[in-house]
Prior knowledge:
Elements: E1 9-20, H1 59-71, E2 75-76, E3 79-80, E4 82-86, E5 96-100, E6 106-115, E7 118-131, E8 135-139, E9 142-146, E10 153-159, H2 166-183, E11 195-205, E12 215-220, H3 223-242, E13 250-255, E14 260-266, E15 276-277, E16 284-285, H4 288-296, H5 302-311, H6 317-323, H7 327-340, H8 343-361, H9 372-384, H10 389-402, H11 406-413, H12 421-434, H13 436-443, H14 450-460, H15 467-478
Parallel strand pairs: 12-13
Antiparallel strand pairs: 1-10, 1-11, 2-6, 3-16, 4-5, 4-15, 6-7, 7-10, 8-9, 11-12, 13-14
Helix pairs in contact: 2-3, 5-6, 7-8, 7-9, 9-10, 12-14, 12-15, 14-15
Amino acid sequence: MSSMQDRGYEAVIGIEVHVQLKTKSKMFCADSTIFDSGDNENTSPVSIGMPGTLPVINKTAVEYSIKTGLALGCQIREKSVFSRKNYFYPDLPKGYQISQYDLPLCEKGSITFKVDGKDKTVGITRAHMEEDAGKSNHHGDYTLINYNRAGIPLLEIVSEPDIRTPQEAAEYGRTIRQVVRYLDVCDGNLEEGSLRCDCNVSVRKIGAEKFGTKVEIKNINSFRFVEKAIEYEIDRQIDLVDRGEKIIQETRLYDPDKNRTFSMRTKEDAQDYRYFPDPDLLPVIVPKQLIEKLRSELPELPRDRALRFQNDQGLPEYDALVLTTERELADYYEETAKTCKNFKASSNWVMTEVLRELNQANKDITQCPIKPAQLGKMIQLIESGAISGKIAKTVFTEMWQSGKEPEVIVKEKGLVQISDTSAIEKIIDEVLSANTAQVADYRGGRTKLFGFFVGAVMKASKGQANPDLVNKILLEKLKG
Length: 480
């Protein structure tokens, strides 16, 4: 279909990101949060909503939520309240969810990220704490409920309706994931449901001020699917408006196999949930000292780190953005550069050789067999002229396979670069003597043969001749 702009429309998109906090126990009880436990193993009378049980707030979950709010530039309420959100689904054991409503812990923040090379800032309305529901497993004509997830701490991060394209929506989600992983408050595993997105989408004529009717797309666990689901929903809504039909405020699900959304239920409004303060929980009082303590513990966030890599270390923007995608990757790069004192060379080796090998092995940077100090030492060997860039690739492969130090590999395999002028002259003389016809052609004007001679010399030296000296001496000798 043609783009929405071509059809005279724009989209208004807001996203709710549900961040499952990486605590050892649940939001209101001591049940374990281990993902791969047996079905219904991580349950107790509290998490399955037995009558007479009382919730107790998880202090770590509150601290993780405050840290996230601070990283998103939110104001932190010194007094927030848990409420009961009343609705019934089979995987919500109590028949209500303990959440926050009018007095959330965090509010009025923002986040900035890159889309198509340009900065995009999206406001954060609120970030409130709540408990997760269980999980329904559908099997044909019956459904089984696993309550292991019920009660796991969630932080729901609600954006302002500032997003205008599916691409912005996906990048917003990726950036939220990046931040919570930097903070180490969530593992961000979308496949396991640790981070899920609800997308609110409406369309309106370009230039119109009034929002269209909002439709929610529920529980999307892939940023690629976020983009595709919103694209589909925008086209669906524009088609309805163009036909003069009414858009229904509802909740829809996305089917990635069919690439379409379908109706799940009519969308409730806040009054339908009959919110009221949970009588079993006192207000959450957060001392200013705790807020400032948690603020002081925040790591350097990805956007700030990328800017430092550009401004202080002279890296291109592309390098800086790639290297800061994960905190551990940025740490690896910085430790490498600390050893060899060469920022760009460290960036090049990490972004090309290291990431390529990790991708092929389906590993992440924490599983890299080459320590950053080892990579830094290898780069030092190149800088000092002890080995060439070509030899370095052989050394790198051996380091990856054996874990040995680069200088040990160079010594064991006799890979030291030949930088002795007389030794290189001898090899060049032998190559020229063996290729007299090519020498005559070169001197006759076929200067493209120079690459042939360089290759022959490097082959004769088993790749160990200093390429700069080879080029310099060859030029002199071929002049005749």
